[in-house]
Amino acid sequence: MEKYIESIFGELKELTQEGKVADYIPALGNANPNNLGIGIYDNNGNYFSFGDDEVKFTIQSISKPLVLLLALIELGEEAVFDKVGMEPTGDPFNSIIRLETFDKRKPLNPLINAGAISVVSLINGKDNIERIEKILNFIRLLADNENINVDTSVFLSEKVTGDRNRSMIYFLKSIGNINGNVDEILDLYFMQCAIKANCRDLARIGLVLANRGYDPVRQEQIIPKRPVQIINAMMTTCGMYDESGEFAVKVGIPAKSGVGGGILCAVPRQYGIGVYGPSLDKKGNSIAGFKLLEALSNAFDLSIF
Ligand code: GLN
């Protein structure tokens, strides 16, 4: 696999010239559009990487399945899915249209912005410091890396520009979907999105998800199996925004992307993969990252279907 990636990497790197770095969160506009990196952990715990796999970026929407996982472990399936549905939307991640038309009580799924805001509102803690510490510690546990933190400038950049998310949370409050202080919950959501990681971290988390909560490196069950199965299913159906269907057909791996340019993949019982390429397509997914995963999936028969 290493040789194969090496042979196609140059060609794929050219694709980073297409697309655009997200700048609706102004601080994300500082990313280098030509970056492309991949990190892969296999089930024996071997790691290999190419390109810019050490570059740190904010995980953005990749935080959504991880916070969902934490909420499922803490509160259980029933409490979480009382607040959020399980169905893909086919709409952009920040769309508000179906909040009123589909189910008048809850967002369609936990991986669109509205659903993720609803899920993070469930995380208990005496204040946001305690809540974000809990989220960070959970992600540190999954990534087996103590050095995972929030990028304050990206957090603040989204906090001052995130009016669309602000409108969403007020709507959610008006329908009784969330309790609590809207500013506080939104801050927590922006903080979870601004958590920094690199390809290696995503690959490491992916490996734990690929093994339903068992970590082949530490050789122990880190988290219970059932919540992992749930988030893997959600990633398969909703993980790549309104490109999830195309990704399922062309790549066929449970995965989650973020507008920071990252993609986390869990190839069941085989690999955890982290990709970084901040130049995005129109739907918000890494252009070169998508193609790289498609090539890998085809060459090594990684599709779960
Ligand atoms: N923080 C981003 C937002 O809410 C996350 C979106 C994403 O990665 N798709 O807009």
Share of residues in strands: 5-15%
- The CATH C-level name of the largest domain is Alpha Beta
**What is the CATH topology classification name of the largest domain?**
Beta-lactamase
- Reported CATH architecture of the largest domain: 3-Layer(aba) Sandwich
Percent of residues in helices comes to 40-55%
Shape: globular
What is the mean predicted local confidence, pLDDT?
A: 96
Element-by-element helix/strand order = HEEEEHHHHHHHHEHEEHHEEEEH
Number of domains: 2
Q: Major sheet: order of its strands?
A: 3-2-10-9-8
Q: Main beta sheet, described? A: 5 strands, antiparallel
Quaternary state, please? single chain
Counting DSSP E segments of at least 2 residues, the number of strands comes to 11
What ligand molecules are bound, each kind once?
Answer: glutamine
Explain the overall architecture:
Helices cover 46% and strands 12% of the residues. The protein is an alpha+beta fold and 305 residues long. α2 runs parallel beside α5 and α7 (152-161) packs across α9 (182-193). It is globular and about 55 Å long. The protein has 13 helices and eleven strands. The longest helix has 16 residues, at 128-143. The protein has helices spanning 2-14, 63-75, 77-81, 97-101, 113-120, 128-143, 152-161, 163-174, 182-193, 199-210, 225-238, 244-250, 287-300, and strands at 20-21, 37-42, 47-51, 57-58, 196-197, 214-215, 220-221, 255-257, 262-267, 271-276, 279-280. The strands form four sheets. The chain has a five-stranded antiparallel beta sheet. It has a two-stranded antiparallel sheet with strand order 1-11. Strands 4-5 form a two-stranded antiparallel sheet. The chain folds into two domains: 2-58 and 197-299, Beta-lactamase; 61-193, DD-peptidase/beta-lactamase superfamily (Beta-lactamase, 3-Layer(aba) Sandwich). The chain binds glutamine.
